[in-house]
Please model this.
Amino acid sequence: MKRVVVTGLGVVSPIGSSAAEFWEGLCSGRCGIGPITYFDASGTRFKLAAHLKNFDPLSFMDRSSAHRTDPFVQYALCAAKEAMEDSGLENAVEPERLGVYFGSGIGGFNTLCQEHIALLEKGPKRVSPLFITKMIYNMAAGSIAIRYGAKGPCQAISTACATGTTCIGEGYRAVKHGYADAVICGGSEAAITPLGLAGFGSCAAISPSEDINAASLPFDKRREGFVMGEGAGVLVLEELSHAKARGARIYAEVCGYGSTCDAFHVTAPDPEATASAAAISAAAENLRELMPESIYVNAHGTGTALNDVTETMAIKKAFGEEARRLNISSTKSMTGHMLGAAGAAEAAASILAIKNGIVPPTINLLEPDPECDLDYTPLTARKTRLEAALSISLGFGGHNAVIAFRKLEEQP
Model:
């Protein structure tokens, strides 16, 4: 089997519009949550979201291209641009050997909502001819492939909130098994709309808090739900010898992936945490010889009542007593829940944690839930030596995806 490394990172998030800004925001405990500004939310219980700040698609695409793309595709292209420039991979790999594994939990939700209003108010002839190509969720993957001439495998995957992690995991498998020399992978989301907020609110997933410091509260007993976020995360994965031959900078090695399904309920996690624990165990298989203190776990940590307890149980089942020695945190306390983009942005956070030896905090964790009794790095970042990281994603429909990274170790 081939070895797979990370050679590029790109992030567009509520706490930073680049990977460097994102990482600085995580380390400083910056909260990206604020009052909803995209629309009038006065008629709803839910007043907060984690928007992108100062995002301008015209900084990297022309006006015509921006008009033809939904924000979720714009976010994807922006993060992909950063990741590809970071990797130096453009024009350094054969087009037929470059793949794209990229998804979205929902896709062009803004476009869907706008065109439905046009249909109801003005009739079918006023629905835009761009409607379908702006809306369907494979267009982020397709647009990235077109931009970089990637003629290898191109997959658009949706596993709800696990989408970004699933795409990275499947991209890892594609390179590991020789289907591509490199892949651009990750996820994006732009679903902060009146309908999106109403939908998640109606299924009791959204926090009703109007206090930005008490809305996204993973593992805290005061938690009442997640806060909607948005953005994109992109990783460039590359076969090790290909990366070394061109002198690429290597962030980390991808060393494991677990993918399972609870097969239990459309929204609720299996309270026994059997399948989620199995995904964690599968991803962590090659980390067993490491000291638990040298491993960072970026938890899914949504701040919903069921998720946080179940995820705690899953980590315990996967690691046994050593779970208490792990460095764990939920960066959703700062970014909100970026939905289909969450896993990709959190994978980037995990890699940067290893590189910099810093565990990002779970901010505002003031009253830990007694059932969430692991070390969730409350309030402030922690400096420590890290050798590896796990990024956990658990999606509606029971989708579980976990990806593992570690410092590159040369083998004889």
Observations:
- Residues 71-87 form the longest helix (17 residues).
- The chain has a mean pLDDT of 96.
